[in-house]
Design a protein that fits this description.
Strand order of the largest sheet: 1-2
Number of strands: 2
Structural class: mainly alpha
Oligomer: single chain
Order of helices and strands: HEEHHHHH
Length: 179
């Protein structure tokens, strides 16, 4: 049987495009911290409307940014570590994860597959009623840094070149084997 939600003190609202316009405030003492899930895609927490789909899309953008930052920053750290003789940049597991992460990106681009994180973000934004519109401050910042105005084939060339550079450092300055 479906869950029965308590009668909401909120007046009916316009759910189109994730807009919520209250006509009168709810009684604060009774509903403080209550969840109201009656409007598809909107979550009410402490009287603040949150579009859950767009929130998840923002989380995916931040994860995507962290992925890219690890690959690019890892390469910079490896190159600096080779020059400065840092032992930790020869860690086998760090180097294997780094190589695998760029290999996945190169393989996806050579096969013509759009990044799954990008697809999930786009679908969640569409479900939230805000296609191609990054959400919060950090998500907008990460989105603008990640997505540049290049064609898919141009990006593939850059991905392959970067992947070859990572492979070259893996060969010229190999990681230490685990004991």
């Amino acid at each position: 049987t479906p869950a029965v939600l308590p009668q909401s003190p909120y007046p009916p609202r316009d759910c189109d495009r994730g807009v919520w316009m209250p006509q009168s405030p709810p009684p604060r003492d009774r509903w403080r911290g209550a969840f109201d899930l009656r409007c598809m895609g909107l979550l009410m927490v402490n009287n603040i409307a949150v579009n859950f789909h767009c929130f998840l899309a923002d989380v995916i953008v931040v994860v995507h940014f962290a992925y890219v930052a690890f690959v690019i920053g890892g390469m910079g750290a490896i190159l600096a570590g080779i020059v400065m003789r840092w032992r930790w940049v020869r860690n086998f597991w760090f180097r294997m994860v780094h190589l695998l992460m760029i290999a996945v990106v190169v393989a996806e681009s050579l096969c013509g597959i759009l990044c799954p994180l990008t697809e999930w973000e786009d679908r969640l934004r569409e479900a939230g009623g805000r296609p191609n519109e990054p959400g919060g401050f950090i998500a907008r910042w990460a989105h603008d840094l990640l997505f540049v105005d290049l064609t898919f084939s141009e990006m593939t060339v850059y991905y392959v070149a970067f992947g070859l550079a990572v492979l070259l450092t893996f060969i010229l300055a190999p990681p230490r084997r685990p004991c």
